[in-house]
Structure formats: structure tokens, C-alpha cells
Amino acid sequence: MTEATEAPQSTESASAATVVASTRDELRAARAALTGTDVAVVMTMGALHEGHADLLRRARESAEHVILTIFLNPLQFGPKEDLSRYPRTFDDDMEIARAQGVDIVFAPTPDVVYPDGDPGVRVSAGPLGDMLEGKSRPGHFDGVLTVVGKLLHLTGARKAFYGQKDAQQLLLIRRMVRDLDFPVEVVSVPTVREHDGLALSSRNTYLTESDREVALCLSRALAAGAEQAAYGPSAIRRAARAVLVEEPLALVDYLVLVHPSTLQDVPEWYRGEALLAVAARVGTTRLIDNTPILVGPGGGRLDVFSQADQES
Ligand SMILES: Nc1ncnc2c1ncn2[C@@H]1O[C@H](COP(=O)(O)OP(=O)(O)OP(=O)(O)O)[C@@H](O)[C@H]1O
Ligand SMILES: [Mg+2]
User: Fold this and answer.
1) pTM, full prediction
2) Is 111 found in the same domain as 179?
3) How many domains does the chain have?
4) Which residues bind beta-alanine (predicted)?
5) Is 52 one of the catalytic residues?
6) Residue 172 and residue 262: Cα distance in Å, rounded?
């Protein structure tokens, strides 16, 4: 885990407007210096892209103050996952933070977040955490929720912004906030894509040029599925599957059309909002993508789920 301890030390690198805090004391001091109490948080693992910038922009629009957290959380990486090679671009991240008017960047090392080492007590994601992403990444969502809970406490934020790209993570954070009574409003942000449809992701930097071509089949499959929204679940699944089978170099982990709050496959008679989600390995990189869909006559692609389905 020592690979994760590269500390962004300098406070000078921040402009007067954006304060960098890497310890709990620095965060407390920076937090106390904010004039208002309306604080939003955007949580990231760094290597920021336009998707993160959009989260920050929306947070900025809806709250008086914005805290950006940059933390590579060892707890959510499996033993065979890519923590040590994860891209680190702190200076570029600071540029984006400043451009978006972020008040505080909290960029701690693991020993700051977990001063006693591995936490004995963790948040359990429950059965939803064992489905889809959780099947391939055991313990991942317990690690995510544990750090999200800690960062909500440490930042004292009352609004938290997350990307729809990580649909299961978003669902589980909403559930945690509701089930454990966190006084926080969770806001979903639509997935930001490249001009050709590829969902932005920090891990896209691992893709070779030819991997990137292959990777386009994920967003193409979602688009093809969504086009069949009016005709019901099997038409949607069939159209999406047909795109993926044309690309044997994408090793598909799952392609599902599920209910947005239970993640169970929707039955053929289902009409309403559903999540079409895909995960595949392309080269050495595991990619995920999804789209919310309104299934049924007049249906089609949605940016995010409606409030009724969001549960908090
Ligand atoms: N393309 C995107 N559009 C909108 N939000 C995004 C996008 N990609 C990531 N996010 C959101 O940014 C936040 C931080 O995510 P994270 O740091 O894991 O970035 P990432 O690009 O998903 O990285 P990785 O590829 O390693 O998972 C999450 O709420 C995530 O959903
Ligand atoms: Mg991510």
C-alpha cells in the first residue's frame, strides 16, 4: 500500500482561492475558514477529466462552497487490481480545481484517512454490493461506502455529487445515506462522453489506440439497446447484445437490463425506468458503462433516473 502514499505536499501550488489540505488539521482549518455552511463535496481518485469538471461545475452552481477530495482508497481495490499503476496527475488536477472555483482540495494519504491501519469496522453494502460490479470485485463497495461515509463526516458537506457512469456506486451511496441517516443530499450527474460516445474515465488512459476502437462497442451497445426502448426488455437486450457479439476483442463480463433500485433483471412485461449496464475487459482494462432507459411506448434514453426512483 506504500504506492498509494505519494503525498501532494505543497500548499503553495494552490492559488489564494483554492486551499490544499492533506491532513485532518489542515482540512479542519480550511473548513472553519469558509464563510457559509452550504458545502458540497465531489469525491474522486484524481486523474481528473471533463466528467469530474462537470461534477465540480454542478456542485459550484448549487452550493456556496465546494470541496474536492482526491484520494486513492486502498480499501476499494482488490489484491489483483491496479492501485500502484493508477494515474497520478496532481498538478493538472489542481488546474481543474482552480478553474472550477473549488474552495478546498482535500488530498490525504491512506495513513491520514486510516490512522489505525485497516479499519476493523466497515460499512457493509449488503446484498446489492454483491451484484454486477461486486461479483467481479468482492468487497469493493464496502470499501467505497466506508470511505464515502468517512469523507462525508470529515468534510461536513451537506450535498454530494456523483456520476451516473458508476450507477451501482450511486445507488449504494443513496442507500447508505438513507439507511444510515446521513444528513446529505445526493445528486446524480449524467455521464460525460467523448464525441464518439466513449464514457470518460480515468482508466481510459490505459487503453491503446486499438483498445480504444474496441471500447467503443460498449457505448454503441447501449445506444442500440436504448433505440429499442419502446419494444420492451428482450428487444433492448437483443439489440445491445448484437453489437457486443460483433466485437470479440471486448470480453464481456455482463450486459444487463435491471431495475434501478433492486438491480434485478426486469421481466418482459416491465414498463418504466430501467438500467442498461455493461462491463467488459478491453486489453488489460476493465471498463463499465450504462444508460438509464424508459422502457415502453414513447420510451427512450434518459440522462439520469427521475427523483421517484432515486430513493433519497
Ligand atoms: N464520464 C463521467 N461523467 C460524469 N461523472 C463521472 C464520469 N466518470 C467518472 N465520474 C464520476 O466522478 C467521480 C469520481 O470517480 P473516479 O475518481 O472513480 O473517476 P473515474 O473516471 O471513474 O476513474 P476510474 O476510471 O478509475 O474509475 C464519481 O462520482 C464518478 O461517477
Ligand atoms: Mg471510477
Assistant:
1) 0.94
2) yes
3) 2
4) 76
5) yes
6) 10
